[in-house]
Amino acid sequence: MLGQYLPILIFILLGIVMGVLPILGGWILGPKKPNKEKLAAYECGFPAFEDARLPFDVRYYLVAILFIIFDLETAFFVPWAVVLNDIGWFGFWAMMIFLGLLVIGFIYEWKKGALEWE
Amino acid sequence: MYLSTFFANATPALPEIALLSMTCIVLLADLFFSRLCPRIPYYLTQLALLGVICLSLCALNKPQTSAFFGMFMADPLSSLLNVFICLTSLFSFLYARSFLEETKMPLGEYYTLGLFSVLGMMLMVSSQNFLPLFLGLELQSLPLYAMIALRRSSGIASEAAMKYFIMGSLASAMLLYGISLLYGVTHSLSISEAAIIFSQGTATHNTVFACALVFIIAGIAFKFGAAPFHAWAPDVYQGAPSIVTLFLGSAPKIAMLGFTFKFLVQAMPTLQTQWQLFFIILAVLSMALGNIVAVVQTNFKRMLAYSSISHMGYMLLGLISGTQAGYAAATFYIIAYAFMTLAGFAMIALLSKAGVEAESIKDFQGLNYKHPWLAFLVMVVMFSMAGVPPTIGFFAKLSVLQALVQVDLVWLAALALIFSVIGAYYYIAVIKTMYFDQPEKSTPFPTLPLDATIAISVNGLLLLILGLFPSGLIELCNKVFL
Predict the structure, then answer these.
(1) Do B2 and A111 touch (CB under 8 A)?
(2) Which residue in B has a C-alpha nearest to residue A112's C-alpha?
(3) With CB atoms 3.0 to 4.6 Å apart as the test, which of A18, A102, B81, B437 could cross-link to B258 if both were Cys?
(4) Is B3 part of a structural domain of the chain?
(5) For range A22-50, the mean pLDDT
(6) ipTM, 2 decimals?
(7) In a domain? residue B440
(8) Is A90–B6 a contact, with Cβ atoms under 8 angstroms apart?
(9) For residue B15, is pLDDT > 60?
(10) What angle do CA A58, A63, A65 make, to 5 degrees?
């Protein structure tokens, strides 16, 4: 009865081993030259500990907004690709038109210099 | 080959497709050729609108045809509204050009955003499903928020944009909630299917439907700027640059009427008694508040904002009557209103000096001594708004009141007349300021751009000519409802 769960136990153990092994390997084999930046908590582009209400560079928002459009595009593409056989050429061209509109938007943001960080 | 069959399915949506393509071309042309010819987005925009007007005129006599699996439907009403949406936008964009160049606002962005907004309006009048309808509404609103904030140096414009954005989002949220409740009642998002379900009469006697109706009507009233959902209108109209105000005060209202027809007339034709009362309250409050508060305004833009609130009240009277004649009268009213508003705000933009708008009524003092022709045009606009014959405003008011009397709502018609008399006071006060007051001091008169001067003359005379010969437009409005 309990034997049925043996594969799952093996799976869990294998998962733990697969996760722990690279970390252990890196810890044993890797060179250790710590400095202050390396030991600090990871934070994207900011000092890790300071007031939460600090003025934000507006370019973060710009990049975030531009990113989310293409992120959503991907979210759109995956289900479309899965059912492409069923929706046929109508679905194909509908998506191509959508893609074309996005490309025009992309050309606009590129040409306007929204992608340059200076 | 496959692409051609794709487009063969989409022929009823040809005006919309053409406009979308042209909008993309305008965007790209602004990017790549604006160095060579800074006005190229402007020329292409006007060309696009002219093209769409022609396409919609061609579709005016065709029977209704649907496309995109019943999501989209072109019928005579949507074609008629499309024609006037594009025509009023064409005038707005024409008035805007010189002001944009003078104040160095981004020209390409103004026109691209404007065209996207027009596309949204066209979807609002021709979608046959609640979801595309809502998408059209959002596509219409979102560019407008950005257009108001286009003049970044102006604090009051940013404030107006913020207010409009928050209130507009609130209205959209209410509408969407109403739509979701409606979906709960009918189990369908299609307007045609909803109409069938409502006509069976089983789905409508419950609280959920009542809630849906309340939310939808509140959302619609918000977007119209009808009292008691009007609070955003005066601040937004005043804060936005006049060239944006004249756009957002005219064409979107026409589209909003088409949107309302979709919801109330096409989806729930048998439930007129249920929504009538809401609209009576909205109309009476709008007429009262708009006309009475406008009396004390000293800012011309604010006064016109209150005047637009009252006009929305009058327009709703046509809907209240619930007859074909009433709907035609509401359509006629909204078209007349759009042209009057356009001319009123265009005058403010035209008389602006070095980017400072002539928005105080005092700026019009003694206009007759400086520029008698412009003064005459303002007088026509004011008389038309007040509903004095022989202007188009008179016939607009006459037809909605006629529709009311036909369904025995005489008390409402009488009330509308009383408020109309109150309204006449502040319109005539402007005329008095122009003709009987001396100009304050000899300030230099701004040089008027030729194209905008011709446009405002055509626009003003149109109010007069359509008032002298209104039968053509009235027949057209009647025909699309038969």
Answers:
(1) no
(2) B31
(3) B81
(4) no
(5) 81
(6) 0.82
(7) yes
(8) yes
(9) yes
(10) 95
Summarize the confidence of residues B149-175 as an average pLDDT.
Answer: 92
Which residues in chain A are closer than 8 Å to B27, comparing Cβ atoms?
A: 104, 108
Which of B39, B151, B87 minimizes the C-alpha distance to B342?
B87
Residues B350, B319: contact at Cβ < 8 Å? Answer: no
Q: Is residue B362 part of a domain?
A: yes
Q: Binning pLDDT at 50, 70 and 90, where does residue B1 land?
A: very low
- The residue segments making up the domain with residue B426 are 12-479
**Domain boundaries of chain A, sorted by first residue:** 53-118
- Is residue A48 packed enough to be buried (19+ CB in 10 Å), middle (13-18) or exposed (0-12)? exposed
> Are B27 and A111 in contact (CB < 8 Å)?
no
Rounded to an integer, what distance in angstroms lies between the CA atom of residue A35 and that of residue B400? 80
Q: Work out how many CB contacts closer than 8 A connect A with B.
A: 23
As given in the structure block, the two tokens for residue B224 are: 């119209």
Residue A31 has pLDDT above 80, yes or no: yes
Number of domains in chain B: 1
> Nearest CA to CA, how far is B31 from chain A (Å)?
7
Asked if the Cβ–Cβ distance from B24 to A101 is below 8 Å, we say yes
What is the DSSP track for B182-227? HHHHHS--BHHHHHHHHHHTSTTSSHHHHHHHHHHHHHHHHHHT-T
Q: Which of A93, A108, A111 sits opposite B6 (nearest CB)?
A: A93
Read off φ and ψ for residue B190, nearest 5 degrees: -80, 135
Half-sphere exposure of A49 (CA within 13 A, CB side): 3
B453-471 pLDDT, tens digit each: 999 999 999 999 999 999 9
Closest residue in B to A89 (Cα) is B2
pLDDT tens readout for residues B165-207? 999 999 999 999 999 999 988 888 999 898 888 888 776 667 8
Nearest residue to B392 via CA among B318, B341, B447, B352: B341
The residues with which B86 forms a beta bridge, in sequence order, are none
Please tell me the distance in Å from B142's CA to the nearest CA on chain A: 15
Q: How far apart (Å, rounded) are the C-alpha atoms in residues A88 and A14?
A: 43
Task: Select the residue of A93, A104, A108 nearest B2 (Cβ to Cβ).
Answer: A93
CB contact under 8 A, A93 and B24: no
- Does B403 map to a domain? yes
Q: Which residues contact B35 (CB under 8 A, 6 or more apart)?
A: none
Give the nearest chain A residue to B30 (CA atoms): A108
What letter represents residue B299's amino acid?
Answer: N
